Amino acid sequence: MSDDVTDRDYCLVGTDRPPEADGPPYAACVLCQEPTEYPESYKGITLCPVCEWREAERTSCSG
After folding, report:
1. Contact, 59 vs 33, CB < 8 A?
2. Rg of the chain over CA atoms, in angstroms?
3. Fewest CB atoms within 10 A around its CB: which of 1, 18, 35, 49?
4. Cβ–Cβ contacts within 10 Å for residue 26, how many?
5. pLDDT by residue (tens digit) across 18-40?
6. How far, in Å, CA of 5 to CA of 13, rounded?
7. Residue 29 CB coordination number (10 Å)
8. Separation of alpha carbons 10 and 12, rounded Å
């Protein structure tokens, strides 16, 4: 294996996050329908903190 290979080469999980809302109304989580930290006007997949954490665990790289 090359010396210039890093963990980033193996863990290609997206890190883009929608902008956080300043206040209500909040977008509903696409998995459990709980309120998220994101504005209701955001177009795209939004997850509540609990589902976001579970998704990160599920998709994390195992060494």
Report:
1. no
2. 15
3. 1
4. 18
5. 667 777 888 899 999 999 988 88
6. 16
7. 19
8. 6
CA 34 from chain centre, in angstroms, equals: 15
Q: Which residue has the tokens 């609990």?
A: 50
Extract the tokens encoding 20: 């956080």
- Residue 1's pLDDT is 47
| Count of positions (residues) in the chain | 63
Between 44 and 23, residue with greater pLDDT: 44
d(CA 53, CA 8): 20
Cβ 36 vs Cβ 46: under 8 Å: yes
The helix/strand/coil state of 19 is coil
Structure tokens at 34: 């709980």
